[in-house]
Design goal:
Layout: H1 3-12, E1 18-21, H2 24-31, E2 39-43, E3 47-51, H3 56-63, E4 68-70, H4 74-85, E5 89-92, H5 99-108, E6 113-115, H6 119-129, H7 133-154, H8 163-176, E7 181-182, E8 187-190, E9 211-216, E10 218-220, E11 223-224, E12 227-232, H9 238-257, H10 264-277, E13 289-291, E14 298-302, E15 315-318, E16 321-324, E17 328-331, E18 334-338, E19 343-345
Parallel strand pairs: 1-5, 3-4, 5-6
Antiparallel strand pairs: 1-2, 2-3, 7-10, 8-9, 9-12, 10-11, 13-14, 15-18, 16-17, 18-19
Helix pairs in contact: 1-6, 7-8, 9-10
Length: 356
């Protein structure tokens, strides 16, 4: 069907005859078609997207009618295809298929041997890590929408607004200005709430002197963007400036080492060492970054536990933070496209402390 399915076939041919892909994100990755239901069958001879009648017409228009079948008699059709083409061993995504559903597969496809190791998921993850120019273009478009939203929200934030109102305004702006969806639930937290890395916006009104941390993103054609900025409403304290500048230095340090061949562990360490040296090592508990694509969190992971190495075509976030419980928190996040000799920062919004 596509170059992607051809590459997948080459990767899986050594351990199976075909693959069944059930996860929504992976279906979208291979077909460019969004749906809440469906299964993608991939083999050397043919590729078929099975879905129910809600989607068949739209899928045929997007993918091509020759590649789309109604899933009403899915298992009977699969049994016929397997028998006709001598397909004996089929790989499934072990990270996505539940035990209950796997029992159904074995019952409905009794003559089929299933490859249940991580081999299929690993093959797909390897492909998804390396973004094509088309994928990067979609991420950039999504990021441009997010940055326009950030510019807009700077004029909206004030001491008569609540965290929820700020989050909803960001969401509305992105959806009104080209986003197909939000990348994730927008984070807009202020004051002591900003010490929670994934705090939930509430009815707290923003107060003078608060740091406001904004973590948000847009989705375009199935691809996500992700950015975080921390701004100050009113005059920051000496402590706030110290923490902010430490995070900014850590973020810039990590960006400075990014290029193909650098280990994700070392990329994380570049940022973490700055924060540790400043005495805030215990206040930075999460990884420095993650891959972004058809899912908001995908490989590679930039963290102390990562065993991955950066490759040309990776798109990763760089988002160190310092979180002081009961006081405030700071996080600054860009997305970077890894190149052979360095990186291209896909985030253009300013990072120096903005005082509103």
């Amino acid at each position: 069907m596509t170059e992607k399915t051809k590459i997948l076939n080459e990767k899986i041919s050594s351990f199976c005859d075909a693959a069944l892909i059930f996860s929504e994100a992976n279906r979208r990755y291979f077909t460019d078609f969004p749906s809440s239901d469906g299964v993608l069958f991939v083999s050397e001879k043919e590729t078929i997207f099975f879905t129910d009648s809600r989607y068949t017409e739209a899928a045929a228009q997007t993918i091509g009618a020759q590649f789309v079948k109604d899933s009403y008699n899915l298992y009977d059709t699969l049994n016929e295809i397997f028998n006709l083409n001598g397909i004996k061993k089929v790989a499934v995504e072990n990270s996505y298929v539940s035990l209950a559903f796997f029992e159904t597969l074995k019952e409905k496809l009794p003559d089929t041997e299933f490859e249940t190791s991580a081999a299929l998921c690993c093959a797909i993850d390897e492909m998804r890590e390396i973004k094509t120019s088309s994928e990067v273009s979609k991420i950039v478009k999504a990021q441009q929408i997010a940055e326009a939203a950030f510019n807009h929200i700077l004029g909206f934030i004030s001491t008569d607004k609540t965290e929820k109102e700020v989050a909803l305004e960001l969401d509305y702006f992105m959806l009104k200005n080209g986003a197909d969806a939000l990348s994730f639930e927008t984070i807009a937290v202020s004051g002591e709430n900003s010490s929670k890395p994934h705090g939930v916006p509430g009815n707290k009104k923003i107060q003078s002197g608060d740091f406001v941390t904004l973590d948000f993103g847009a989705t375009v054609d199935g691809y996500h963007s992700d950015m975080t900025r921390t701004v100050c409403v009113g005059k920051p304290t000496k402590k706030q400036r110290e923490v902010y500048n430490t995070v900014l230095d850590a973020q810039k340090k990590c960006l400075s080492v990014l290029k193909e061949g650098v280990s994700c562990f070392d990329a994380d360490k570049a940022a973490r060492d700055v924060i540790v040296s400043a005495g805030y090592g215990d206040n930075f508990g999460h990884g420095t970054g993650h891959g972004v694509g058809v899912e908001i969190h995908e490989f590679p992971s930039v963290s102390p536990k990562s065993k991955s190495t950066l490759k040309e075509g990776n798109v990763v976030t760089v988002e160190p933070g310092i979180y002081l419980p009961g006081l405030f928190g700071v996080r600054i996040e860009d997305m970077a496209l890894i190149t052979k000799d360095g990186h291209k920062n896909l985030t253009c919004s300013p990072k120096e402390l903005i005082i509103l």
